[in-house]
Each structure stands twice: as structure tokens, then as C-alpha cells.
């Protein structure tokens, strides 16, 4: 009673068929939810299989939802448990277990530079590696055509992995390129609400291929192996009392006599997996959207390059200290996040107790998903030309712009990696624009601005011509 309104529920399927039909018609899940919200309002009540799912559409609904602590859980079920041998990690756990782990991770990541000055130095070093790697590929020609939607993956992971595991990988590391490409494939085949076997768990036994179960497991296994190797290496080389990174600190906690019960080796593996997925995918996809729009908007590149030349010059790498003096580059970062998150849903929450939202009843156990499309592109968007890539919108003196800018969420479950993500975006974009121009390669089509659906939205794969600036 008083559950949010939505499409009719059919026996067994619930509203799955209606949602699938809308998705076919409107191209993406975000566009389908936008369509449903026109009919049903800011909360759309769905039932997919046995699962109740509410989509929150619009700033007021999303803010009220994210600030309601009764809605701070994460979904349960085999889809969420199989990836980490039970409910483990930080991304998809809740209650006291999650609080203890999140606090520990945040405190110790800071020891290894997270959010501090040496984070800037570490990102600057990686940006230099990236610039030099591109220059090597250019050779004497001074230009090269590259697959731009995926080329940031290893560089982004390196900035994260330095703090987590004290390791960096070569941009040509074949194993890591493979792991990122299979993860990319998985993320295109599922979405933030899950996949067929998460809504209909029994299908994993009868139709493992069709329900997405096989792909899910085939993707996770090599990533577990990769992380396990890293943990084993740390166990072999770690000197007690001299932690080098988060894995070492965590191992010390596991070995301490008075450790709380939540600290186990499986939990450490789950945390690394969460970071591998939540940390590298999101930032890499954001770069994909950013350079796509920079290629299509040479005047934005030119404006940023003039700013960088006058503040930083050409002889040193931009740093996070330059942020206040590079407002146009910072505005590109925000415009990038807006375009990426407009087509990406927030991580699903779960009602820990019966509660109410926007005057509706939300029963315990309901999954609830924020639809950022509404605030960045859709009906509640405060910008009149939302699909245009126009960084200037963030430089206009309008405070409501920042009130409506919540790509990392709000409240207690707010993104744990915001400072690293923003730092990466700022330094990499500034460094690349300082050195290169980006354009459509001869004989190639203009990149398409439509997003592809998945756990996180991706740009349609595209190539760019990168040439040395004169
Ligand atoms: C463009 C980059 C990124 C965006 C837009 C982004 C956005 C988000 C959003 C919307 C959430 C969900 C908040 C909620 O559930 O209410 C989230 C959670 C999370 N993010 Fe990010 N994120 C980004 C990068 C990163 C990075 C680089 C890391 C790792 C260093 C990271 C780690 C996490 C983790 C661990 C959570 C779960 C937090 C929790 O449940 O307590 N994210 N992120």
C-alpha cells in the first residue's frame, strides 16, 4: 500500500517486460526511466522478478533518498555475494560491518597520500608517463591515431594501485590490458539494477550463459587471481611495523591479536576488487567522454591551452596547486563528470527498515537507485542546453549550479574516491592539453556523442588523432 506508482506487475516477471520494451524503444535505461517519470512522478515503483526496485528521478527525490539513513543499505542476493565469496568489501556491504571497514580504509589511505599533497605528485608522475608514452608512439612524425576511449585505463589504475598495493604497471602490460577489457565487456552486459540472474537467481542453474552468470564468473576469476597474487607477494615481502601501502596495513590488522572479526584475507581481496572496479572504470569512462567532446569542440581545447600556457607554461607538469588558477580546466572536469554521470546511475541502495520517501511507503529490502540523468540532462536539469559540452556553464556566477552538482552522491555513502578521481581528471586533462591537440583522424567518422548502456555509461568506441602542439 502506498508503494510508488509504476508500470503494471505481471505474474513472475513483475514489470521486467515493460522496462525491457521501453529500453528497446528509448535506447538506454536512463532514457526509459526519464520516460516513466513523466507518467509516474519522482519515484517509480518497479518489481523485477521477486525484487522490488524504486528508481528515484529528480533532485528533490534523490537528495531526500541519499540523506535517509534507513536507505543506506546495499542490495543482497547471489549477484552481489558471488563476486566476493559472501557479502564482503566496502562498496556492497552495509550496517556495522561497512562502517568499520570504510573508516579503516579512509584513515589508512590518507597515510599513503590519499587527498594529500603527495597524491598530486603521484598523479603528476603518472601523467608524465602517459605523455611520454604517447610521444614514443608518435615517433618523429609528431602525430598518432589512438583508440581514445580505453587508452587511460592503466594510467588511472596506477594512481590508485600506488596507494593500495605500491605497484605501477606499464601501459603495455598485456595481462592488465586483458583484465580491463574483460571487465569492460562485463560492465557493458549488466547494469546498475543487475542482470537476468540477479533478478531471477534460479536461471544461473538452467541458463548460465543466457542469464549472464557465465560471463560474470569468467570475468571475476582472473581478477581474483590478479589480486591474490598481489596479496601473496605482500605477505612474502612485508616487514612488520613498516607498512608500504594499504594492503600491508590491512595484513598487519589481520595479524594483530585484538583485531575485530571483520578483518580477514577474503575481506582484503574484496576491498581490492571494489577499488579495481569502482575506481578505474568510472574515471576511465569519464576520460572517454571528455576527449570525445574535446575532439568535437576544438575551441574548448584552444581556450584551455591558452589558460595552461599562461599559468603553467610548457616546461613543468600541471599540479593540483594550479587548480585555483586554471578555472577553465576545472570547468572541463565538471562538465565531463556531468556528461558521464547523466547517463550513469548511482550505486543501488537497499531499505534497511520500512521507511517513507517523498510521501510513499518503501518496504524493508527494496532496492532503490538514483537516476542522475534527471538532474544533469533531464526534466529537472537547470541548464537549457544540457546535451552541449559547454564548460562555461560552471563559470557563471550561479550558486544553484553547484547545489545541483552531485556526481559523487551525497550523505554517508558518498563516493570514497572523489578526491582521487577529481585529481586524476584535472592533472591528466591539463597535461595532455599542454602537450597535444586532439582531432578526428582523416578517413574516420566523427565520434558519436550517444552513450552506451552498462553498469557505467561508455562512449561509443572512437579513435582520435593526437598531434604535438607547435
Ligand atoms: C569519475 C569518477 C567517479 C565517480 C563519478 C564516482 C561516483 C560514485 C558514486 C555516485 C557512488 C555511490 C554513492 C552512493 O551509493 O550513494 C560511488 C561510490 C563509491 N566510489 Fe566512486 N566514483 C568515482 C571514482 C571513484 C574512485 C577513483 C574510487 C576509488 C579510489 C571510488 C570508490 C568508490 C567506493 C569504494 C564507493 C562505495 C562507497 C560506499 O559504499 O561506502 N570511486 N562513487
Automatic annotation (TrEMBL):
Keywords: Heme, Iron, Metal-binding, Monooxygenase, Oxidoreductase, Signal. CDD domains: CYP15A1-like (cd20651). PROSITE patterns: CYTOCHROME_P450 (PS00086). InterPro entries: Cyt_P450, Cyt_P450_CS, Cyt_P450_E_grp-I, Cyt_P450_sf, Cytochrome_P450_fam2. Its cofactor is heme. Belongs to the cytochrome P450 family. This is Probable cytochrome P450 303a1.
Amino acid at each position: 500500500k502506498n508503494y510508488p506508482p509504476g508500470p503494471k506487475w505481471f505474474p513472475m516477471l513483475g514489470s521486467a517486460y515493460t522496462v525491457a520494451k521501453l529500453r528497446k524503444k528509448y535506447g538506454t535505461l536512463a532514457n526509459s526511466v526519464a520516460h516513466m517519470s513523466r507518467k509516474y512522478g519522482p519515484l517509480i515503483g518497479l518489481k523485477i522478478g521477486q525484487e522490488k526496485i524504486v528508481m528515484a528521478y529528480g533532485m528533490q527525490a534523490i537528495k531526500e533518498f541519499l540523506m535517509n539513513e534507513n536507505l543506506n543499505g546495499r542490495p543482497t542476493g547471489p549477484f552481489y555475494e558471488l563476486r566476493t565469496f559472501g557479502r564482503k568489501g566496502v562498496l556492497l556491504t552495509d550496517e556495522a560491518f561497512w562502517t568499520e571497514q570504510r573508516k579503516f580504509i579512509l584513515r589508512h589511505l590518507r597515510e599513503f597520500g590519499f587527498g594529500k599533497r603527495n597524491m598530486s605528485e603521484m598523479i603528476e608522475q603518472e601523467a608524465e608517463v602517459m605523455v611520454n608514452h604517447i610521444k614514443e608512439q608518435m615517433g618523429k612524425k609528431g602525430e598518432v591515431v589512438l583508440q581514445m576511449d580505453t587508452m587511460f585505463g592503466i594510467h588511472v589504475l596506477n594512481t590508485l594501485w600506488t596507494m593500495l598495493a605500491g605497484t605501477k604497471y606499464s601501459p603495455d602490460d598485456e595481462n592488465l590490458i586483458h583484465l580491463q577489457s574483460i571487465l569492460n565487456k562485463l560492465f557493458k552486459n549488466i547494469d546498475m539494477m543487475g542482470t537476468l540472474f540477479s533478478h531471477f537467481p534460479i536461471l544461473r542453474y538452467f541458463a548460465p550463459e543466457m542469464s549472464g552468470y557465465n560471463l560474470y564468473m569468467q570475468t571475476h576469476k582472473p581478477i581474483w587471481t590478479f589480486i591474490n597474487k598481489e596479496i601473496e607477494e605482500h605477505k612474502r615481502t612485508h616487514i612488520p611495523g613498516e607498512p608500504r601501502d594499504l594492503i600491508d596495513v590491512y595484513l598487519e590488522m589481520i595479524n594483530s591479536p585484538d583485531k575485530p572479526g571483520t578483518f580477514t584475507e577474503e575481506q582484503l581481496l574484496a576491498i581490492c576488487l571494489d577499488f579495481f572496479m569502482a575506481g578505474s572504470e568510472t574515471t576511465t569512462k569519464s576520460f572517454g567522454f571528455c576527449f570525445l567532446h574535446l575532439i568535437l569542440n576544438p575551441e574548448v581545447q584552444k581556450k584551455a591551452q591558452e589558460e595552461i600556457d599562461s599559468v603553467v607554461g610548457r616546461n613543468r607538469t600541471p599540479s593540483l596547486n594550479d587548480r585555483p588558477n586554471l578555472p577553465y580546466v576545472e570547468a572541463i572536469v565538471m562538465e565531463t563528470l556531468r556528461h558521464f554521470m547523466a547517463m550513469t546511475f548511482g550505486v543501488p541502495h537497499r531499505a534497511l527498515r520500512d521507511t517513507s520517501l517523498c510521501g510513499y511507503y518503501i518496504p524493508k529490502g527494496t532496492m532503490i537507485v538514483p537516476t542522475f540523468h534527471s538532474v544533469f540532462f533531464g526534466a529537472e536539469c537547470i541548464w537549457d542546453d544540457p546535451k552541449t559540452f559547454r564548460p562555461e556553464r560552471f563559470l557563471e556566477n550561479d550558486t544553484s549550479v553547484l547545489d545541483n552538482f552531485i556526481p559523487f552522491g551525497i550523505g554517508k555513502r558518498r563516493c570514497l574516491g572523489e578526491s582521487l578521481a577529481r585529481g586524476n581528471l584535472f592533472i591528466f586533462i591539463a597535461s595532455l592539453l599542454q602537450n597535444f591537440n586532439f582531432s578526428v583522424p582523416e578517413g574516420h567518422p566523427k565520434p558519436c556523442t550517444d552513450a552506451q548502456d552498462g553498469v557505467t555509461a561508455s562512449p561509443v568506441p572512437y579513435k582520435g588523432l593526437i598531434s604535438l602542439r607547435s
